[in-house]
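=== RUN LOG ===
request id: a7f3
mode: sequence -> structure
chains: 1
length: 191
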Amino acid sequence: MEFYVIAILSYFLGSIPFGYILTKLILKKDIRKIGSGNIGATNALRTGNKLIGYLTLFFDITKAIVPVIYVKFYFPQEIYLSALCVFLGHLFPVWLKFKGGKGVASYVGILFAIKLIYGLIFGVVWLVIYFLTKFSSISSLLASLSIPIYIFLFKEQNLYFFIIMLILIIFTHRENIKRLINKEETKTKIY
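=== RESULT ===
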């Protein structure tokens, strides 16, 4: 029974579309009609309101940390189930006809909740690549790749889970990858 409760609650917490909600509340606009049409933090920055972008980032990270930390302490054997369901909730929210964000902020929350060092590695790699390229997409892809590499090199557990997460991140960034190859990707201003 706890398996299903954890899966469902994690999915629903992950599916809260903060970028959509904040843009509606503050700007009275639909974020799906702005920029890339994505509901995540990067596109929220494209609304022209940095507060919306940073709040979206904060809440998308937090909505992943809260359930995964709770499960980590009370049902540790189900931590990866909770993490995956939170992530899938963000990617495929029932409230928005299963069209959600790309999952990067939620993945950051998952990483910090599972092990602090994972979140720190992701954050450092993301920032370094971003300041070198100014592309949020390539920063997210390479930072996501850094986690399974770290786990493999240091022989930590659950490598397959992080490979699955990397594959999902690549899937959600498939259009960005095409634009990067064609040199059509838009640079992101984060400050």
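=== NOTES ===
Residues 2-91+102-181 form one domain.
The chain has a mean pLDDT of 95.
=== END ===
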